[in-house]
Amino acid sequence: MAQLEGNGGARCTVTQTIDASGAPVVKLIGEIDISNAHQIGRTLEHVVGTGTDTLVIDLSALEFMDSAGIAMLLRVVTGVAFVTIRNPSTVVRRILECTGLDDILPIEQ
Description:
Blueprint: E1 2-5, E2 11-18, E3 24-32, H1 37-48, E4 54-65, H2 67-77, E5 82-86, H3 90-99, E6 107-108
Parallel strand pairs: 3-4, 4-5, 5-6
Antiparallel strand pairs: 1-2, 2-3
């Protein structure tokens, strides 16, 4: 578990587990903005760098994400063959829908 805090005050905790299929599940808790998106991206890239071809990103406890968070997610998922966004919070789901990312990143409830 990594707790990351940006200079602007955004806080995000990143936890990692493995689901029943053996895929890594990364849960993002809190907020992602320009102040901490780079740090979070590096943490996620470390998971991807382990050679996984599948990644589940649980956004059920993510309260806010700005364009820096969106860009970070897009950078990270380019290194993975299969990505699933799990249970995005209402706010984050709306962001994904408004930006069209729900067409690119499969959302699982």
